[in-house]
Amino acid sequence: MDGQHLTKVVLLACGSFNPITNMHLRMFELARDHLEDTGQYRVVKGIISPVGDAYKKKGLIEACHRLEMARLSTDSSDWITVDPWESLQPEWVETAKVVRHYYKEMLEAEQNTDDLDTVKYAKKRRIEENHFGASSHQKKDGLQLMFLCGADVLESFGVPNLWKQEDIDEIVGRYGMVCITRSGSDPHKFIHQSDKLWKYRQNIHMVREWVTNEISATQVRRSLRRGRSVRYLLPDGVVHYIQEHALYSAESEQRNAGVVLAPIQKNTEVS
Amino acid sequence: MATCRIPLVLLACGSFNPITNQHMRLFELARDHMHSTGQYQVVGGIVSPVSDGYGKQGLVLAQHRIAMAKLALQSSDWVTVDEWESQQADWTETVVTMRYHCGRILKEYEQSTGEHNDSSGNPSPLSSPCPQLKLLCGADFLDTFQVPDLWLDDHVEEVAGHFGLICVSRGGLHPEQAVAASDTLSRHSHNIFLVREWVRNETSATEVRRALRRGLSVKYLIPDSVIEYIHQHNLYTEDSERRNKGTVLRPLAKQATQPGKSLDD
């Protein structure tokens, strides 16, 4: 297969990363392997975008720590990066806006490189977009941004007031998703049961995780509170950082207790 | 009044083909658990890779498995790799490995207490007892006791009764059932410590080898240094997985030649 025709992909993962774990990092590796295995894509970059403190999730510690832990954990990766933009915004930012932001940035970065024949590709994409209609991807010059997440995020599309319908349309319809399955969830069924997701099913890349690796940050925090080891669940640098700064105590877990999650707050106000 | 905790060394035997984060996690979980009983103080951990004579399919050379384990444990301040078992001419029964380490620990203990003895050779009042050795394993290991001819009854008695087991459960396996299914294990259930791993992490070496064969990433499942080593030496290919194919596992071959073996089917 001619390398010139591979679509370049940037993977974007949003989340609390409270803290980042080996499982989060593994998601990127799995997604890359899966996409490249189709022979249609080349994954060029991964972006970890920790949510801002204004998200108001229970137990969410300061963004500065979550950013630093994410940075430590990606030290040994040559393609996964951490971006503070989202966490630096004063208000909570809808995921769709975050995706839009990084998509724009990706295009701008690409324009600054010389190795693309923009005229030839723009024409080709216009033809393809007209052909595929509703499921057309925002693909400019063989470049695509895809939203990377676990199956639990996909299923959270069903939680009332957590997502705006037009945002789901945008993320899944216009950009595309790579979704890593977790045992105990049946994401195919979830897609099947949602007319909206069913419409965009071509844009949802499901990746089966054969090596069950459900290192939930919630359980990691619980172990830390109880003085139990979390070594080998998180990168060593992150374990040290947590110990050094004494993050994750019973106190930190009570942060935002009783506070309404920012997206729900926002979406219920609008009505 | 402070109770004296029994010092404990954890021994994990296995293929370590290759060592994974999950293997190392076993030690962490076991240590936390034994400390929380209030009765033990874990003072050391030993990874003892099996010798090539084991004859398991896909087993790469011991020299590599040892090297990888050493790389993985470089950053650990309490778990070490021991080569004795891998250096023995033939495959060694688990109980023999345990006896070896127990003897070694006792000798070291006697030497160090000897240094602290008073002039009449009495141990100083501050010295703690000799560390005990227990076998650390995953729940699937308990099931192996049920495999016909894999274990000698006497050995199961010794491992469970004399030494003791710390068994970390994995995913859907239920170690309590394995204990209940065996008369010998049931008799020594007080000496079998079951540790529940709540974080479902089924990183198995088998899956890691499979991913490597297929050129898929295993980053974050095993340490970076081990990944590098594997690539440098081109371990874990389709060829390596075929190694020992058709060979009878050494313990089964050995047990079959034992006199007085039960002929029950």
TrEMBL record, chain A:
Enzyme class: transferase
Cofactor entry: Mg(2+); Zn(2+)
GO CC terms in record: nucleus
Domain Cytidyltransferase-like: 12-222
Protein localization: Nucleus
UniProt-listed GO biological process terms: NAD+ biosynthetic process
One Gene Ontology MF term: nicotinamide-nucleotide adenylyltransferase activity
Keywords assigned: ATP-binding, Magnesium, NAD, Nucleotide-binding, Nucleotidyltransferase, Nucleus, Phosphoprotein, Pyridine nucleotide biosynthesis, Transferase, Zinc
Enzyme Commission no: 2.7.7.1, 2.7.7.18
Nucleotide-binding in keyword set: yes
Pfam families hit by this protein: CTP_transf_like
InterPro entries documented for this protein: Cyt_trans-like, Euk_NMN_adenylyltrnsfrase, NadD/NMNAT, NMNAT_euk, Rossmann-like_a/b/a_fold
Pathway note: Cofactor biosynthesis; NAD(+) biosynthesis; NAD(+) from nicotinamide D-ribonucleotide: step 1/1; Cofactor biosynthesis; NAD(+) biosynthesis; deamido-NAD(+) from nicotinate D-ribonucleotide: step 1/1
CDD domains according to UniProt: NMNAT_Eukarya
Keyword Nucleotidyltransferase: yes
Catalysed reaction equations from the record: nicotinate beta-D-ribonucleotide + ATP + H(+) = deamido-NAD(+) + diphosphate; beta-nicotinamide D-ribonucleotide + ATP + H(+) = diphosphate + NAD(+)
Alphabetical list of PANTHER family matching this protein: NICOTINAMIDE MONONUCLEOTIDE ADENYLYLTRANSFERASE (PTHR12039), NICOTINAMIDE_NICOTINIC ACID MONONUCLEOTIDE ADENYLYLTRANSFERASE 1 (PTHR12039:SF21)
Protein family according to the UniProt entry: Belongs to the eukaryotic NMN adenylyltransferase family.
Subunit structure: Homohexamer. Interacts with ADPRT/PARP1.
Protein name: Nicotinamide-nucleotide adenylyltransferase
Organism field: Champsocephalus esox (pike icefish)
Species classification: Eukaryota, Metazoa, Chordata, Craniata, Vertebrata
Automatic annotation (TrEMBL), chain B:
This enzyme's EC code(s): 2.7.7.1, 2.7.7.18
Organism expressing this protein natively: Champsocephalus esox
GO CC terms, sorted: mitochondrion; nucleus
Location of region: Disordered: 246-265
Comp. bias (Polar residues): 255-265
Keywords: ATP-binding, Magnesium, NAD, Nucleotide-binding, Nucleotidyltransferase, Nucleus, Phosphoprotein, Pyridine nucleotide biosynthesis, Transferase, Zinc
Catalytic activity: beta-nicotinamide D-ribonucleotide + ATP + H(+) = diphosphate + NAD(+); nicotinate beta-D-ribonucleotide + ATP + H(+) = deamido-NAD(+) + diphosphate
PANTHER family reported for this sequence: NICOTINAMIDE MONONUCLEOTIDE ADENYLYLTRANSFERASE, NICOTINAMIDE_NICOTINIC ACID MONONUCLEOTIDE ADENYLYLTRANSFERASE 3
InterPro entries: Cyt_trans-like, Euk_NMN_adenylyltrnsfrase, NadD/NMNAT, NMNAT_euk, Rossmann-like_a/b/a_fold
Family: Belongs to the eukaryotic NMN adenylyltransferase family.
Pathway participation: Cofactor biosynthesis; NAD(+) biosynthesis; deamido-NAD(+) from nicotinate D-ribonucleotide: step 1/1; Cofactor biosynthesis; NAD(+) biosynthesis; NAD(+) from nicotinamide D-ribonucleotide: step 1/1
Alphabetical list of Gene3D superfamilies matching this protein: HUPs
Cofactor: Zn(2+); Mg(2+)
GO MF, one annotated term: nicotinate-nucleotide adenylyltransferase activity
Keyword Amino-acid biosynthesis: no
Subunit structure: Homohexamer. Interacts with ADPRT/PARP1.
Protein name, as recorded: Nicotinamide-nucleotide adenylyltransferase
Domain Cytidyltransferase-like: 11-210
Record bears the keyword Membrane: no
Cell compartments where the protein resides: Nucleus
Pfam families to which the protein is assigned, alphabetical: CTP_transf_like (PF01467)
GO terms (BP aspect): NAD+ biosynthetic process
